[in-house]
Structures are given as C-alpha cells and as structure tokens.
Amino acid sequence: MDLVFVISFAVVISLVCYPSSVIAGDIVHDDASAPKKPGCENDFVLVKVQTWVNGEEDSEFVGVGARFGTTIVSKEKNANQTRLTLSDPRDCCSPPKRKFAREIIMVDRGNCKFTAKANNAEAAGASAVLIINNQKELYKMVCDPDETDLDIKIPAVMLPQDAGTSLEKMLLSNASVSVQLYSPRRPLVDIAEVFLWLMAVITILCASYWSAWSTREAAIEHDKLLKDAVDEIPNDKGVGFSSVVDINTSSAVLFVVVASCFLVMLYKLMSYWFVELLVVLFCIGGVEGLQTCLVALLSRWFKHAGESYVKVPFFGALSYLTLAVSPFCVAFAVVWAVYRNVSFAWIGQDILGIALIITVLQIVHVPNLKVGTVLLSCAFLYDIFWVFVSKKLFKESVMIVVARGDRSGEDGIPMLLKIPRMFDPWGGYSIIGFGDILLPGLLIAFALRYDWLANKSLRAGYFLWAMIAYGLGLLITYVALNLMDGHGQPALLYIVPFTLGTFLALGKKNGDLNVLWTRGEPERACPHSYCQELNVEK
Predict the structure, then answer these.
(1) Does residue 183 contact residue 98 with C-beta atoms inside 8 Å?
(2) Using 50, 70 and 90 to split pLDDT, how confident is the model at 146?
C-alpha cells in the first residue's frame, strides 16, 4: 500500500471534523438578528403543508412559520384540513375582493409588509395565510421595529417558489384543493443516534485491538531478532513497524492551520462539481481501506494466498489475496458512487467510511501522550471555532454548512458516517464526522498498545477507561444535540475533555504520566546476552 497516499488522505479526512448533527435541518430557529417584541415573538419553525386534491392525498411541502401570528399546532391529528384558495389581489396588500369562510389563502410575496398581508387576510375571514416566496429558498418573516399592528390571530407560513408553482397549478385546474398545516416535534431520542453511537464505539474498539495486536506481534518479532544475532539488531521501531507513521507535535499543531484552510476552501468552493471530486477521493480512500481490512481478515483462512506475491506494473509486489479482493472493493465503491442518492446508499457509505477509519488508525500512531494532548487540544479549539465562532465572521456556521453540503445540490458530503432518523417525522440523518472518531481513536489505540506492552490488565490499564470516557463524551454530545433542538454540535467539545482528561488523571494517579508523556511505551528488558553483558559491565 502506498503510505504517502494513505497518510495524505487521512489528513484530508482529519481536516473535516464535522459536528454530530442532523441533516434534515433544524426545525426550531431563534435568530438574534430578528429581535422579539410583543405580538412578534414566535420561534421560526418548519411547517409541513400536506395537500389533498379532490379528496385524495397529494404532495407535501415544507415552509417556515412567521415571527408573528398564532403558533402552528404540533400534532397532525389536531390540524384541520382546510380549503385553499388564491388571493385576489394576489399580493394581498389591499383587502381581498371577497370574504373567506375560514379558508386558507395563498398570496405572493412583495409590494407590502408581511404583517399587512396577514392583517388583510385575517380581516377577510381567512384562517391562515400561505405566502409564496419569489425565490427557491425559505425566508424568515419578521416585523419592522416601528410596527404596532401586531395583534394577528391567524398563522402565517412562507413556502418556497417551486411549492407555490405546484399549488397554483392545482388551483387553476379547477380541482378542490385542501391543505393541513402542522409542525411536528422531533422525538427526544431517535434510535438512529443509538446505532450511530454504537458504530463509532465499535469502530474505535476494532481499530484499537488491531493496532495493539500488530504492535505486540512486531515487539515479539523484535525480541526474537535480538536473541538470534547481535549483528542484526534492528532499530527502535523493529520489524513490522515499517508501515507505521508516528505523528509529532509539529504536525499536530500544523493540523489546525491546514484543516482551517481546507475547510474554508470547501466552504467557498462548495458546488456540485466539488462534491463530485470529494466523492472520487472518498471512493479511492474507501477502496484502500476496504481492501486492507478484507485482506487482513481473509489472510487468517487463506494464509498461503496472503503470503504469495506477484509483481504488478505501477503497483509493485501484491499478494494473490490482494489481487482477488481488489476488484470487489473497486466494484463496491463504484456502485455506491453511482447510486449514492438512493435511500439505502448510507449503508455503503458507512462500510467504506468505517473501513477507511480502521485502516488509518492502524497506520497512523500517536507515539506518546504529549503528542496526543497537543493533537486533541488543537482539534478541540478547531471544532469550537468553526462551529460557533465562525458565525461571527461568516454569518453562518462554516462547519455545519459544509457538513450539510449547502449550495452543492447534494445531500451532504461523503466524509462522514450517517444513519437515517427512523422515528423522526422530518426524516433526515444523524451524522458524525470522521474526525470525531479518528482523532480520539488515535489516543485510545495508543492506550491499548501501552497496556499490552506493559502487561496491564483491562481494569488496571488505560484503554477501558479511555473507551468509556469516549462513549460518555459522545453520549453527552447527543444529549446536547437534542437539548439544542437539533442545532449541530461540535462533538470534540465534549469528547476531548472526557477522553483526554481521564487519561491524564489516571496516568497521574498510577505514576505513569512521565513515561506516557515522553516515551509512550514501558521499559522492556533486552533479551540478548550482549545486552545483559553490557548491564553486568555497568
């Protein structure tokens, strides 16, 4: 495997430390730029507009409720099915030419204030007003600071332009059109979040054990070579470590700078073609990761094929097992890329993503606690800045915009794990960025490697407690996510203090902090007689 390629791609993935979030969009908004005042103090909520044509259920549209007017009911069973009609005049800036029998009227945006339209509609007997935007996006309807006529007793909902076009076609076809307005609330906990939590924890668990097992095998091989011949004493890393890359403090600090530049580039260049480029990169990395995992797994049953090599142009020496597995991996990634917009494509994305994360955690190592602390601390600040502080500079959260794939025409970008929200009336996905698994995973894998080399039991070591701390930190992330009405949360804000704090506290308590901080591995006795002779002479 080309290590330079894998590590460079791992860096790209680490750059995109997306917050744990919900792709469907937040259903409750509180915009500080639109201050509340008496009569104009509603939260901005997404509203479902279900239509019926001639008594048969038809399309459903999504709008946003206004700052003013009555609130929208949350339960579908409490929402009345009401006849829809067009306003005359269409902008409703003057009183309608006829009275309405508690109908819902559809009006065009423009020519007067939103509140004027709602007041005119209410005076004419309408039960609600649907205001059609002149753009494809939704717009928050607010009140002007000097407005006083805000005692509006009907709800107002804005719909995007394409929804208005569809509704107008229904009405102009002389059909009987009815609509139902309601704003269902998200469940406090969705089963998707439970599965995503398990997915993240199990991924780190598998990667850590594979990393620790490889390290222990290499250490055993290292000791055997020392026993066999003093002239062939290898370097400190020993046999088996040639494919491992250790992070240093400089690269850990550089991470923040490079990651920030990459994130801004994603934000500025986000478009359909750029997402297509990311899909290609993700597929290449996914193929490498899936191939590595499958070869390592199957080599236990097909040992001879895994140890027999053939030279392939441009790729060098490859095992027969690698050659057999590679076409399947390539085909899997290509099929996912082609059908990535279908409802079940998240399964393929998660398989490729998990394989890639496990492979990266196998190859990239944190050599000691000092590097791990610098790396996670930088990632902690990076996550907070680009989720929260960037709102002050860019008027929106850069990281959340990039994670959702806004302005790209795609349903998010591929460098994340996601599961559809199963019991959420708004649908969407619960997601977690690769960085929220990779970065803490580097420290947790280091903990298990240290435990095995130091012959520590599970309870006496660091891995179990670091793993529990990570699980708790991620759990707190989802609690915060739900308490904040689905607003994206930077997972590392909660994971880093739990994981890193637990590791540092245990190291201090056990008296291993100095060794963990500097060497990163326990002292091991030299098994060669030459080493023993040197010790005697000393």
Answers:
(1) no
(2) confident
187 phi and psi angles, rounded to 5 deg:
-65, 150
Give the pairing type, strands 44-53 and 56-65.
antiparallel
Site of tokens 């009006």:
107
Catalytic residue annotation: 383, 436
Q: What is the mean pLDDT of residues 443-462?
A: 93
The DSSP result for 226-284, as a single string, is: HHH-GGG---TT-TT-TT-EE--HHHHHHHHHHHHHHHHHHHHH-SHHHHHHHHHHHHH
The neighbour count for residue 113, using CB atoms within 10 Å, is: 15
Q: Are 387 and 436 in contact (CB under 8 A)?
A: no
Among candidate residues 361, 343, 67, 49, the one with its CA nearest the CA of residue 211: 361
Asked whether the predicted pLDDT for residue 485 surpasses 80, the reply is no
Range from 188-192, 208-212, 311-315 carrying the lowest mean pLDDT: 311-315
pLDDT at 131 over 90: yes
Tokens encoding 359: 């492979």
DSSP of 293-346, one letter per residue?
HHHHHHTTT-HHHHH-EEEETTTEEEEHHHHHHHHHHHHHHHHHHHTTTSTTHH
pTM for this predicted structure: 0.82
Instruction: Report the candidate in 62, 63, 61, 65 with the shortest Cα–Cα distance to residue 31.
Output: 65
Q: Give yes or no for a contact between 206 and 358, defined as CB atoms under 8 angstroms apart.
A: yes
Residue type, 102: R
- Cα separation, 23 vs 408, in Å, equals 14
CA–CA separation, 137 vs 237, rounded Å? 57
- What length does the chain have? 538
